[in-house]
């Protein structure tokens, strides 16, 4: 059996090595390292893939979120509601811009921001909601859009973990994750579903005016060369990374299918285990049935009951199986983000999840033998 890895970037690269090398060589030959034709080409191809009017490439997914918020003109003191159970980047940029982060609890089934908790957190100062499509599963965008409309709030999708997922509205309409709110951010960090070989990110929007504003912000607030109209940042996707991403983009659907297939096999192996709660969507289809494609399994995350989760992690590691705990501490308990306004009773689900969750190896190269080995070891431990 091949050595099991949490993410197998080398195995994936080996299959597209010639295309990647050609693309890198092209950039080297033209020396158009910054804002070269590859960046524009990738931007256009990603716009077509997503069905969104504007993709604005930038340096990483954290910048993308920050720039999206700057583009919307959010002001110090504005309250921004986001999930307590996510990667810290989401809350970090809110705090950096002197906006007020308002963390709220999530759902126990899909781990995404809880709709009732959003409603409860809205005040006259609330200006935006940032749903995170956590672990590759779309948040309940229909309900979020409804709340946003009612309260006149912006919706900023943190789509770092769900690129390629398709969200289905109750009327059957479909849209790619990241094209549903006012603006979205994504990350091309190597281990993300569409990853480059360094740092990268992008902002998506269907709003022409916002796209124009954001194109200036990523480039020092310049709309005309050496005219700085607003305070901006320097945040660029370099041409080598853009070329790599453009090479990988046509494979994204098959990469996500490979992840979904691995998830199905995991689900099948765990379906009769009373102490294992499988990752699932709002419906029993688990986000990957014929009519819905809303989960692209950036992570495959279980909840385990009646066992010591940390001991399970150690047992798996001792058996050569890497695994992860995403995330071990609720954001509202992180030193940087503690706030007197928070009440532990409002974070029942997150407080439980941080004790129960375990993410198993998930990537495009997992084979049946590896999945069989992983699931059998998990079951051996769980059933003592
Ligand atoms: C990875 C990630 C980010 C940040 O992306 P970087 O490219 O690493 O800056 C933001 N939000 C979420 C949910 C992420 O998973």
Describe this structure in words.
By secondary structure, the chain is of the alpha/beta class. The mean pLDDT is 96. The radius of gyration is 21 Å and the shape is globular. It has helices spanning 9-30, 37-50, 61-71, 89-96, 115-121, 141-151, 208-217, 239-248, 252-270, 309-318, 348-356, 368-382, and strands spanning 54-58, 79-83, 100-104, 126-130, 154-158, 166-168, 174-176, 183-187, 201-205, 222-224, 227-228, 276-277, 300-304, 357-360. The strands form four sheets. Strands 1-9-8-5-4-2-3 form a seven-stranded mixed beta sheet, sandwiched between helices. It has a three-stranded antiparallel beta sheet with strand order 12-13-14. The chain binds pyridoxal-5'-phosphate. Pyridoxal-5'-phosphate is lined by residues 60-62, 86-87, 89-90, 132, 158, 160-161, 187, 189, 199, 201.
Strand content: 5-15%
User: Would you tell me which CATH topology of the largest domain applies?
Assistant: Aspartate Aminotransferase, domain 2
CATH class of the largest domain: Alpha Beta
Distance between the termini: 25 Å
Helix content percent band = 25-40%
Number of helices: 12
Q: Total domains, how many?
A: 2
- Judging by the overall fold, what is the CATH architecture of the largest domain? 3-Layer(aba) Sandwich
Mean of residue pLDDT values? 96
Query: What small molecules does the structure contain?
Result: pyridoxal-5'-phosphate
